[in-house]
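Wed. Picked up where I left off yesterday with DNA-binding IclR family transcriptional regulator. The coffee machine is broken again, so keeping this brief.
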Amino acid sequence: MQPGQDAPQPSVIRRSAHLLRLLAAREPEGATTTQLATAAAIPRPTAHRLLSALQDEGLVERDNATGAWHLGPECFLLGAAATTRHDITPAARAAVLRIARETGESAFFSIRRGDETVCVLREDGSFPIRSHVLHEGIRFPLGVASAGLTILAFLPEPRREAYLARTDLVGAYGEQHSASALRKRVAATRERGFAVNPGLLVVGSWGLGAAVFDAHGQPYGALSITGIEARLAPPRQAELGRLLLEAAHTLSTSSATGSTPGRARS
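Structure written out below (tokens, as returned):
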């Protein structure tokens, strides 16, 4: 870009894709035009114009009673067509189910997409008190929540440092997510083997996460559990961490010998 030139504006496709991702993270409640425009940092008329165009293609639909937008039927059809290439392996589903049954906590499988993690599987355990911080479709930046922290911790150091240099999480998530604070938690995660989120998103809601690696030794996903502090704090924490690490190792081994679901973008 030459001096004096305006910065290039995001393309219509990029803005539309961003709106679809924002909607996916807000299902099943959906979101209003104003909420989506604010989250996407675009003018409300622009958001409405893009959403209306997506509605014409069946990619979103609007609840006339509430005014909330939702993902449309065409998204389901596209997702179904993509499962032949990006399906979550039966092993991942089995791992999440087993963890939930054996621990009684809510268990999750998340995958890395660029600088974010996306929760793609959830299974609730038998313990009656549950956290609703994570649900299928929700996205967090790397370093946020136990899944994002464990993936960040096991990225190659140059890639991890480049991410920390270009990313500011303090405004949205507080000082506990500054680069220096994250570096300390990354070091503890690498030493421990699994990540611990001691209620940094919601007070009292803890999370543990273990990275899942692809055939090249890169973290592409994470298994995690959430629960109240009394159930995830030491000494039970070590037992739960070992269970997560064993399940993550099994998934990593299957990835090394077969296809990797949801391969991340670098």
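Quick read: The chain has two domains: 12-78, 87-257.
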